[in-house]
């Protein structure tokens, strides 16, 4: 460890050889404060605070950042080892002085005042908060943000991707999205929507014979698709094939309903699915830990109530039986 040049040590000592600068440095150690807040906390005129802050900044003891009309000051994060040691020593003597203890009490009041401003807003705005939130940040920005919890290493299949709404939402947070659909018109829209994402692979294909290798997905999503397929169990088996053991399926669809007109209006093959049938099919298709959750009913929409199902792909061994037929046996 090389000692700093003599003049640097003297400069540093000179900067700290002032009680006001030490109080300021103590105030911004571990927190950010504005000049106004520092004036309030240390009960000093703005000219005094600004003058000393300039000295501290010139000597690289503090750093600051602008935010709108405010500037926030804090102890520099780039102090070298010697400066840090020197400040630790000085701090130990300064922080126990009556002036520093009073400063600290007033800093806590300043910070509490910031909190109070936000609390006062919410006390008044509780009734309108959701409207304000939607107009500022969008209807469900919370759910978009929650997608960041997904594992960034995952390859996700958006099976029956339609116009690619979900693929576009998933692309920024996972390794790759394979979007599959049988409809050329839907695929064209999906390609247009996901063109900015290099990790979205849009493929034409059916859910009954997915254009995917065995065990090539970590997660498969069937979003509002299952009620359209002719043989759901067959599709679930095919999805199991393309998932790695331990991979997960997510099915979101309608709960069993009685709206016969949907068959003619929208080509629905099935009038939703209840828990018993989904549990049964998933187990038969080679899934375990099946969880069927009814989604909260949204009173502002006209469609039937929905469910979401998650399940885990069971371990499957592939064996070659006499006659060279390939069979899969579930363990
Ligand atoms: C109701 S849309 C849902 C699209 C999308 N998942 C969403 O949430 O917006 C159903 C999609 O599944 C596709 N689809 C239906 N049956 C299919 C099958 N057997 N194979 C591949 N795609 C299918 C349709 O072409 C359509 O794009």
How would you explain this protein's 3D organization?
44% of the residues lie in helices and 22% in strands. The protein has a seven-stranded mixed beta sheet with strand order 5-4-3-6-7-9-8, sandwiched between helices. Helix 2 crosses helix 4, helix 3 packs across helix 6 (98-125) and helix 11 (232-242) crosses helix 13 (275-285). The longest helix is centred in the middle third of the chain and has 28 residues, at 98-125. It is of the alpha/beta class and 331 residues long. Mean pLDDT is 91; it is low at 318-331. The relative contact order is 0.07. Helix 9 links the parallel strand 3 (155-159) and strand 4. It has two domains: 6-131, Orthogonal Bundle (Arc Repressor Mutant, subunit A); 141-330, Rossmann fold. The structure holds S-adenosylmethionine. S-adenosylmethionine (SAM) is lined by residues 160-162, 165-166, 181-183, 186, 206-208, 223-225, 228-229.
